[in-house]
Specification:
The structure holds 2 protein chains of 2 kinds.
Chain A (H helix, E strand, L loop, with lengths): L1 H8 L6 H4 L33 E7 L5 H10 L3 E7 L2 H11 L5 E2 L6 H6 L13 H5 L2 H4 L13 E14 L28 E4 L2 H11 L10 H18 L2 E3 L2 H5 L7 E5 H6 L8 H4 L3 E4 L7 E8 L7 H12 L1 H11 L37 H4 L1 E2 L5 H15 L3
Parallel strand pairs in A: 1-2, 1-3, 5-6, 5-7, 9-10
Antiparallel strand pairs in A: 4-7, 4-8, 4-9
Helix pairs in contact in A: 8-9, 8-16, 9-16
Chain B lengths: L2 H22 L7 H28 L2 E2 L6 E2 L10 H11 L9 H31 L5 H9 L6 H12 L4 H8 L19 H25 L3 H9 L4 H12 L1 H17 L2 H6 L8 H9 L5 H32 L1
Antiparallel strand pairs in B: 1-2
Helix pairs in contact in B: 2-14, 4-8, 4-11, 8-11, 9-10, 11-14, 13-14
């Protein structure tokens, strides 16, 4: 208590010096995250903690409850899920409160800082045989993935692309992205004023504007390019009275509240279930665009185990369970976000004999991510704090409704 | 008589008075009654002063350079006011900054003014009816007045989303009515497409129960005898209303206005659910936008302080008016 009070009386400490040590992972500059002596992985062959409660810290609605129930029944444990709204919020809580969490779902762009500050523990892959057995080699080869070569701290969870979702019955064919020279122009079409939405996410919205303006570096620090992107977004306010939402793609597009909405592939795949009427009748009304040449926004998120995990063996077991084919596909069938499973290659979803092909509507098969898409797609990468500040400043001008 | 004798005399009198009151069973030790209020007072002080100080500490704190989360500074001697200057610039366009917050501030005042006026105009007749003309069914109407409180604000707003969506009930009703000359009556009007009016109607719907209850309490307290006296002295019914009822219900009107305007200024949820457009954002949305981004929480904290300053104005007016009223009574 006295120590806390004394600490509170001192000037707040800064971590500026540590910032210089942050390795910024890039596809052409992959990073092998260090394993520190003071933060080793757990030993092999330990028994699973008995009567434990597995605590997850996850995005909202980002794991199928039935899959969790199956896991809890199989391993005789309980589970609790806490949720966060964005990665910044999650990092702040994890760091400041040292939360009691066994499994965390970060995005790859924040891994370096989590590792540097010993907030994650290295994985013992002996507990995760399903990683090499079930997951695409693009994530399991020794030099993969670029953000965590050798899978020292993470295993992949879900894949996604960010494209454009629209209603066939509300948007004229000549106006849809497939028929436009610049597909992103669809957002600026005043004909659909009031019925267009984008994600309430500064990276997604600003990146869309950058791509619209012909800038393909979606991690740029170029202040002029970002300022132009801001101007383009502000133009959306006047031209189409743009909406910014987090649930518009999967909840409101199928209801016809929006005719056009920026869409994550998983949101669009799940959207027919949120329409008015049977999903099979709603699905044909929805279309999804993502560039056929693979030059679009792509990404994945990951599983990680915090250093402070009370049940690290159970957490490793959970990771292994979730990477297993059955659990992964069951989870996919509810969420719409695709796991990188070897036994579920992209072409399988067009094969009616494939057990899980029903999850992907025939007209939305382009929501499925291919391994080669990662070679050409644009991946969100960690921004330097100063660059991140510019992004936020430009985004703020837009959302303040100038 | 010397001063010492006078004091001793006073003490003796007080002791006698205390003894007499004790014998009569009505004497209480000093601090007896304030002691009842102490737990709630301490509770309120802790839950108001501490969080408010935390807002100051965050507003004038720093941001972690790596994790980008706010680092509150608890010691006033280390406080950095640059964030306040920056937000001031964003509101008023000073310091070479564009006034990017100005539209939301202006819109908030417009929305709050329109919504509180509508609450009063719509709520007063309801409160008047229940207080004066509901007869034997007064208790039933009282119950109906508090019925909206049984359902959370969020659920009521979500219900509005269903009512207002393109194929919702409102458009169905409007299409059925013979109002073809109105553009909103074509059966396809996009109520949820970012209209300031929709946000105002949503706010009115959300807060009108808070207006009606104090109005009802104020009107119900007006003695019937005063109204009868007015009529006996020859005043017509409208004159009685404007010269007797309305002035006497002023405390209820003021209380209702204060109760609804204070939360309206900070409201963000109505806009989030019924519009979701930057063009309809209010001060509450500016705060909400920044709270969601840890590196911007200090800006949100400064906006909270600005909002608090704005709210002091109607609060002070209310306190001044009611204390004057009490003094004149």
């Amino acid at each position: 208590m006295a120590g806390t009070l004394l600490a509170a009386c001192g000037k707040p400490e800064s971590t500026t010096d540590e910032a210089a040590k942050l390795p910024l992972a890039r596809p052409d500059a992959p990073v092998t995250l260090p394993i520190y002596d003071d933060n080793p992985a757990i030993a092999s062959d330990l028994p699973i903690e008995e009567g434990a409660t597995l605590k997850l810290y996850n995005w909202d609605q980002y794991v199928y409850k039935k899959v969790m129930d199956d896991f809890a029944a199989q391993y005789n444990c309980k589970y609790e899920i806490s949720t966060f709204n964005n990665m910044d919020e999650a990092l702040a809580k994890i760091r400041s409160t040292n939360m009691d969490i066994d499994v965390f779902f970060p995005t790859p762009d924040v891994l370096a800082k989590l590792v540097l500050f010993r907030l994650l523990q290295p994985l013992n892959l002996d507990y995760i045989p399903n990683l090499p057995k079930c997951v695409w080699p693009e994530f399991t080869a020794p030099d993969k993935p670029f953000y965590d070569q050798g899978q020292h701290y993470t295993v992949p969870y879900m894949l996604y692309t960010t494209g454009i979702g629209w209603r066939n019955d509300m948007v004229d064919e000549k106006d849809d992205p497939w028929h436009l020279d610049n597909p992103y122009d669809i957002y600026w079409n005043p004909k659909y004023r009031g019925k267009i939405g984008i994600y309430d996410d500064y990276r997604e919205a600003m990146s869309m504007a950058l791509l619209h303006n012909g800038v393909t570096d979606i991690n740029t620090g170029d202040a002029t390019a970002l300022s132009d992107a801001e101007d383009s977004l502000v133009e959306l306010i006047d031209k189409v009275n743009i909406a910014i939402t987090m649930n518009g793609a999967y909840e409101d597009l199928p209801k016809g509240i929006f005719a056009i909405h920026q869409g994550w592939s998983g949101d669009i795949l799940a959207s027919p279930y949120y329409g008015k009427g049977p999903a099979a009748q709603v699905a044909p009304l929805i279309s999804y665009w993502w560039p056929k040449d693979g030059h679009g926004v792509i990404g994945n998120d990951v599983f990680a185990i915090p250093k402070s995990a009370k049940n690290p063996v159970l957490a490793h077991t959970f990771l292994n369970y979730m990477l297993g084919f059955d659990a992964a596909m069951k989870n996919f069938s509810w969420m719409g976000y695709q796991p990188p499973q070897i036994e579920a290659p992209p072409e399988a979803f067009s094969d009616p004999n494939f057990k899980w092909s029903w999850v992907v509507w025939p007209n939305l098969v382009n929501c499925i991510v291919k391994p080669t898409d990662f070679d050409r797609g644009y991946f969100y990468l960690e921004l330097e704090p100063k660059v991140d500040q510019i992004w936020h400043d430009d985004w703020e001008v837009f959302i303040s409704g100038v | 008589m010397s001063e010492r004798t006078t004091r001793a005399h006073r003490r003796r009198r007080k002791r006698q008075q205390r003894l007499r009151l004790k014998e009569e069973g009505v004497w209480y030790p000093r601090g007896f009654w304030p002691a009842f209020a102490a737990p709630a007072t301490i509770w309120m002080a802790l839950l108001f002063v501490t969080p408010f100080y935390a807002v100051f500490a965050v507003a004038m704190g720093t941001v972690d350079p790596i994790f980008r989360n706010p680092v509150p500074v608890w010691q006033p001697w280390y406080w950095d006011t640059s964030q306040i200057v920056e937000v001031f610039g964003k509101i008023f366009g000073t310091g070479g900054q564009p006034a990017i917050f100005a539209p939301a501030f202006i819109r908030t005042f417009e929305n709050v003014f329109a919504a509180s006026a509508l609450c009063l105009i719509l709520g007063y007749p309801v409160a008047y009816f229940v207080a004066r003309h509901s007869g034997k069914r007064k208790n039933l109407f009282r119950l109906l007045l508090i019925a909206p409180f049984w359902i959370s604000y969020m659920m009521r707003m979500l219900a509005w989303v269903n009512i207002l969506q393109p194929d919702g009930y409102l458009n169905m009703i409007l299409a059925w009515l013979p109002l073809d000359f109105l553009p909103i009556a074509n059966g396809h009007y996009g109520w949820l497409e970012g209209h300031q009016a929709t946000v105002v109607f949503g706010i009115v719907y959300g807060y009108i129960p808070y207006m009606i209850l104090p109005l009802f309490a104020g009107l119900d307290r007006i003695p019937q005898s005063l109204l009868e006296a007015s009529r006996d002295l020859g005043a017509s019914a409208p004159r009685t209303f404007f010269r007797v009822t309305l002035p006497l219900s002023k405390p209820g009107i003021l209380a209702g206005l204060v109760i609804v305007t204070l939360p309206m200024f900070g409201d963000y949820y109505t806009n989030n659910l019924l519009s979701r457009r930057p063009t309809t954002s209010m001060i509450g949305n500016l705060i909400d936008n920044n709270v969601g981004v840890p590196s911007r929480v200090s800006e949100a904290a400064v906006l909270v302080l600005f909002l608090a300053v704005i709210l002091i104005v109607p609060m002070s007016y209310y306190l001044r008016t009611t204390s004057r009223q009490e003094a004149s009574d």
